Amino acid sequence: MLDDVPRDPFADDPNDPAAALGDFDDSGPLTSAEREEALTDLADVEVFRSLLEPQGVLGLVLDCPECGEQHYFDWDLLRGNLRQMIDHGRPQVHEPAFEPDPEGYVTWDYARGYVDGVIDTEESR
Ligand SMILES: [Zn+2]
Questions:
Q1: 62 C-alpha vs ligand 1 centroid, how far in Å?
Q2: Residues 72-119: pLDDT tens digits?
Q3: What's the CA-to-centroid distance between 38 and ligand 1, angstroms?
Q4: 62 with 1: CB under 8 angstroms?
């Protein structure tokens, strides 16, 4: 019987304690700082891609925090992982590219340095 289902005691209560969580609740288990960082990383990845993909760079090689090994991520995978983390709070770090060509991947630091170099060059023109 439907009537036997316990009602949400706060269903009609405008002071529902869950409502106070608001957007925070939508970010899943990520703290707001982690979410902020993931959004920053996502923006960085977009910049890296726009400058490095035309140079033939396929993606980034990152140290895996879980197994300590290096994994290769192509651009779509990087973006997908970050979006996944931002939307659901769960990174999927264990889906690296299949049989990647290591030549096509650079480290985050390399990408960062490359982008900074391009920006410096443009500013000094
Ligand atoms: Zn791993």
A1: 9
A2: 999 998 999 899 888 888 766 566 667 888 899 999 999 999 999 988
A3: 18
A4: no
Report in angstroms the alpha-carbon separations of 79 from 25, 83, 95, 109.
22, 6, 13, 17
Question: What digits encode the pLDDT tens for the residues 1-58?
Answer: 556 666 666 666 656 555 444 444 444 578 899 999 999 999 999 999 999 999 999 9
Q: How many Å lie between the centroid of ligand 1 and the Cα of residue 112?
A: 22
One-letter-per-residue 3-state SS of 33-78: HHHHHHHHHHHHHHHHHHHHHHHCCCEEEEECCCCCCEEEEEHHHH
Q: What are the C-alpha distances in Å from 4 to residues 1, 8, 45? A: 6, 12, 51
What tokens appear for 121 in the block?
């060059």
Structure-block tokens of residue 118: 């391009």
In contact, 97 and 72? CB cutoff 8 Å? yes
Question: Could you identify the residue written with the tokens 């990174």?
Answer: 91
